[in-house]
Amino acid sequence: MSVVGRQRLSDLGGAGGTGGTGGGGHDLRHSDGPWVRAAGGAEALHTLLGPVRAELDTAHEGVVAGNAGLAALAELGAVRESWQRRFEAARDECGSLAGHLRDVARAQHATNEAVKASFAPVAARGGGR
Predict the structure, then answer these.
(1) Residue 38: which residues within 8 A CB-CB, separation 6 or more?
(2) Alpha carbon of 24 to those of 18, 38, 91, 105, 112: distances in Å?
């Protein structure tokens, strides 16, 4: 879903007004594309981080067996738990962020439409003249 809205303030002036096609750099533009792409990226990260916990568990299988009594195993366990918490926190944040980014795209589009609609009476009167 990519919506691009474009309106020139000068277009509201009508013929003979200050507007026309020149625009003078007063274009109002919005595209939800960047927001939607960012949301997709956040969702992709959320998905990629999903199996990390299981992969860490698999990678650590058998480490304790045959190495019992090594002081480094306790350290390794603490480090592993820390990374698991961090990966889960990042995964949760990415999942939440995707929705928020899509909300921004929808809100920006709604705002643009409201602004455009608010100028309609001026445009209907020929630029307010």
Answers:
(1) 101
(2) 10, 31, 45, 27, 20
CA distances from residue 15 to 8, 89, 113, 119 in whole angstroms, order as listed: 14, 57, 24, 16
Beta bridge partners of 28: 7
What confidence tens digit (pLDDT) does each residue in 25-71 have?
Answer: 556 667 888 999 999 999 999 999 999 989 988 888 877 666 666 77
What is the dihedral angle through the alpha carbons of 28, 33, 37, 43, rounded to the nearest 10 degrees?
100
The continuous run of DSSP H or E covering 31 comes out as strand 27-31
Cα–Cα distance measured from residue 28 to residue 115, given in angstroms and rounded to the nearest whole number: 10
The pTM (predicted TM-score) of the whole model is: 0.61
* 127 three-class SS: coil
Interaxial angle between packed helices 52-59 and 71-124, expressed in degrees from 0 to 180 and rounded to the nearest 10:
170
